[in-house]
Amino acid sequence: MMLAAPGQLVSISRISHDPNVSVMLEEAQRYPINFGQGEEVFRLNPDLVLAGAFTSPYTVGLLRRLGIEVAQLPIAHTLETIPDNIREVGRLLGREAEAEALIVQFSADLARLRANRDHAPRAALHYANNYTSGENSLAHDILTAAGFTNIAAEAGLSGGGNLAMERLIMLMPDLVISGQPYPGASRSEEVLGHPAMERLREGHAAHALADAEWVCGTPAVLRAIARLTTLHERG
Amino acid sequence: MSRALMAGLGALMVALFAASLLIGPAGLAPVQALSALIWGDALAETLVMREIRLPRAILAALVGAALGLAGAAMQGYLRNPLAEPGLIGVSGSAALGAVLALQTGLAAAHVLALPFAALAGAVLAVLIILALAGPRGGSITLILAGIAVSALAGALTSLVLNLSSNPFAASEIVFWMMGSLQDRAMTHVWLAAPFIMLGALVLLAQGRKFDALTLGEDAAASMGVHLGRLRLALVLGVASMVGAATAVAGAIGFVGLVVPHILRPLVGARPSALLPASALGGAVLVLMADIAVRVILPTRDLKLGVLTALVGAPLFLHLIYKTRAQGQL
Fold first, then answer.
1. A-chain residues within 8 Å CB-CB of B187?
2. If contacts are CB pairs under 8 Å, which of residues 38-97 in chain A contact chain B?
3. Beta partners for A34?
4. Do A196 and B52 touch (CB under 8 A)?
5. Largest Cα–Cα distance of chain B, in whole Å?
6. Residue B61, C-beta contacts closer than 8 angstroms, at least 6 positions apart
7. Is B106 in the A-facing interface, judged by CB distances under 8 Å?
8. DSSP alpha helices (H): ranges in A49-206?
9. Which of A17, B3, B69, B114 is the most exposed place for a label (fewest CB within 10 A)?
10. How far is the C-alpha of A13 from the C-alpha of B292, rounded, in Å?
11. How many CA atoms lie within 13 A of B262 on its CB side?
């Protein structure tokens, strides 16, 4: 949506309309959504389909057999890979110049936010089911870019994984960043408001929410870094 | 005999309760852990002990006692060793009630909505089972009715969770069917404990009447046992305990089958002695299972029902075989 020319985009994924993960909700409301099913995508008769690395291989294969060009974009696990993805989408859409301009802007903003800091408070990412992100993850990069250290990395976690609440508490983070709960109830998300975590936040740690800006490798991660940096400077 | 058994079970329960407090992924030293629990001296250790491990250990004991006692009571009333809240769909229906309360937002709007909804589900299931199995509780009708009620409750629970707007809800079907005590809090203890205590008091008070019932309904009635009242006490007592236990821990099967079966010969098959012994035995079994899930797979949330079914299902098959050999099936 950041790169396409007017009229170039015919349909977008349904998750673009999900406020918990979409960073361009308002713009996304203008486009019709699809549910990623082969049949409905084929009916739209597109020249190009942009798919994720985890899109069902059967759907991708089906569309390719039907003669539609499908490009699969890798998931950005670090801040460094974001420009590569922007460049790739620019090339596929024939909007190379726009992509390069976006990359220059992104790199400059990131460099500005990455100022050197004398101390690094310790932060914990806490999502549903006690899921957290260690080294080699976008969330870890966002944390370190904003001048925090990630306690999941201290615990030896690489990529995403579960860190038992007991262990998270024993590591005594200075900041707890929790996932935003979805509507409706679930036991998985009950851990976010567990009394032990609440006491930790009352007695010791600051608290922040991780929202849509944390999820995907787009220039929107800069907004997440900027907000964390403010938190860092305050305290 | 019975007194020594009760003392033994009590001591075992206390030891397992202590073990449950001392085992966990944080790897605290026992002395440090106990001092944090009692004196609250270090923030991190105190939070781990008081807010995570203590509620888990208390709930394991409470839920186990509820399931053991409910199983013994149902078997006493129906005079059938196969009657068990999980197998005949009472736990499953309680889970359906709990899921409905959670997904409709009732549980968030009112604290007591969750246990009451689970209780209502359990009452409904007990009534259906009693109506179908009849006063004497023939094994075939009991098991067939149980299969039907379980299947229906399980299907509706899955449907409600799949319809939920929450993307995590559908993956929690296995929690509601198998049960777990991972990351429970003191709030869950306060929610479940009153209902379980109340149900236990109601059922334990019926011990003598269950004793009389072993001689047959007519004999019991001639000894002054009011069968209608006993039936009401059974329905409310079982539903209250199983409902509250399931609302916080999911449906854990086979506890009410295994525990009374092991203890029955040790108490001389007297229901009045079997009821309290089964409560203690149930607590022991669930504490053991909950320690085992943490030792076997410390980083994953292995479900309690997996372990209880591994022990309970073979025993269930054995009981069916034995019942058939006695010509009762």
1. 195
2. none
3. A13
4. yes
5. 63
6. B13, B17, B283, B286, B287
7. no
8. 57-65, 81-93, 96-113, 138-145, 151-154, 165-170, 195-203
9. B3
10. 43
11. 20
Rounded Cα–Cα distance for residues B21 and A70 (Å): 54
The position carrying tokens 């349904």 is A14
ipTM: 0.84
Q: For the domain covering A122-234, report its CATH number.
A: 3.40.50.1980
pLDDT exceeds cutoff 60 at B329: no
Please, where in chain A does CATH 3.40.50.1980 lie? 12-112, 122-234
Q: Which residues contact A88 (CB under 8 A, 6 or more apart)?
A: A71, A73
Chain B residues touching residue A186 (CB < 8 angstroms): 164, 166, 168-169, 172
Query: pLDDT tens digits for B37-66?
Result: 998 888 889 999 999 999 999 999 999 999
B58 neighbourhood in chain A, CB within 8 Å: none
* C-alpha distance from B42 to closest chain A C-alpha (Å): 10
Residue type, B15: A
Domain B2-325 has CATH 1.10.3470.10: yes
Place of tokens 């851990």: A191
The two tokens of residue A115 are 């100022």
CA closest to A167 among chain B residues: B26
- Chain A positions touching B175 (Cβ under 8 A) are 187
| Per-residue confidence (pLDDT) for residue A113, from 0 to 100 | 85
Nearest CA in chain B to A181: B166
Give the class (CATH, top level) of A12-112.
alpha beta
- Whether residue B278 contacts residue B293, with contact meaning beta carbons closer than 8 Å, is answered with no
The H or E element spanning position B146 is helix B139-163
Judge whether B182 and B226 are in contact, CB under 8 Å: no
Strands A175-179 and A122-126, by their bridges, are parallel
Q: Please name the member of B166, B186, B300 whose beta carbon is closest to the beta carbon of A195.
A: B186
Helical (H) or strand (E) element with A178: strand A175-179
Residues A10-68 have pLDDT tens digits of: 888 888 888 777 888 888 888 888 888 888 888 888 888 888 888 888 888 888 998 88
Provide the CB-side half-sphere exposure for B60 (13 A, CA): 32
Residues of chain A positioned with their CB less than 8 A from the CB of B185: 194-196
Interface size, chain A vs chain B, as Cβ–Cβ contacts under 8 Å: 86
- Whether A166 sits inside 8 A of B107 (CB atoms) is no
Which of B111, B162, B168 to probe by mutation at the A interface, max A CB count within 10 Å? B168
| CA angle, residues B64, B238, B263, in degrees to nearest 5 | 50
